[in-house]
Design a protein that fits this description.
The protein is mainly α and 409 residues long. The chain is 69% helix and 0% strand. It has 14 helices and no strands. The longest helix has 36 residues, at 5-40. InterPro entries: Ammonium/urea_transptr, Ammonium_transpt_CS, Ammonium_transptr_marine, NH4_transpt_AmtB-like_dom.
Amino acid sequence: MELSTTVIELRYALDTFFFLMSGALVMWMAAGFAMLEAGLVRSKNTTEILTKNVCLYAIACTMYLLVGYNIMYVDNSEGGWLPSLGFLIGTQGEGADHSLESDFFFQVVFVATAMSVVSGAVAERMKLWAFLIFSVVLTAFIYPVEGYWTWGGGFLSEAGFSDFAGSGIVHMAGAAAALAGVLLLGARKGKYGKNGQIYPIPGSNLPLATLGTFILWFGWFGFNGGSQLMISDFENATAVGQIFLNTNAAAAAGAIIALAVCKATWGKADLTMILNGALAGLVAITADPLSPSPVAAITIGGLAGALVVLSIVGLDKLKIDDPVGAISVHGTCGLFGLLAVPFTNADATFGAQLFGAAVIFAWVFGASLLVWGVLKATMGIRVGEEEELEGMDFHDCGVDAYPEFVSVK
């Protein structure tokens, strides 16, 4: 039986609204990243990290509108690897389930999320303008190309690679770009001793970091739920409910297991590890938040919560300085999420998942390393010792985040 025109229009309106509201939730994650990072850096670098987060979001929205969305979705060949190059977002196709503009809005906030991963990892020693130039390249070109290979119908999707909402496409990609920058940038002054010592550099505002984590947790319901793409019938509405349940369960398990690992290892409840445990669970379940049972979602989230603690400690031993743990949360646990998919989704294979993860990492890491390298050789990517000592707020922004406090140099 054919649906009446009224029912079709109502479903179109509902699915469009669902896209817009999901996108708005993901946009709110920009605030979460800003608060989390501002809480985990020192007070003398707070204004600068907030400036980065506001500007990277604005750059992502602009560049993805001008060229990025077109590269990722418009006039590309099925199963190909070389995207077309055009401008803006194309035109609405016949028989669409939702408006083209709502689709763009939902996609653009994902791009900003990938770039937000980078800002925390390179915090406290990267030049502001080098970071912003890199943001232009990542959001306009690097991310859209691998996005075409996967969600845009390119060769990775044809190969059977499965990534429901972006554990690899968004999170691991952001971590790969961050890792390339960190390797060329080096560690913060005073982080590592000559004989292998690791000196903790505490963040300035753990209440703010906690608020940021809860905002990210909240926004993730739009991130994963909206990726179902429809809600206007029984099957899709039920699926969205399952996605919400699994997303929440994985985050909760990640926090609990990170707490347990910290207690067993150091005898303390390390709040920063617990926060990263919740985020690790969210990243891991993002690869497939629909197929797992609730118990499986708890298992995936819990394993990610343990893994992120081990990864953060391991990277520190390798002298890879990541002030907020972004590479571990989004990279290590993003990869884990991809490899966990075949355990609950019979349509996915380990071979396809490994292939997709390797291609995404190699492309984003390689392209990012090239861009960071060019920036380092031309304008430089690291601030001077005096600037780092006095704080980025004074030199880059001219405004202290906490002017009533006396900064400890």
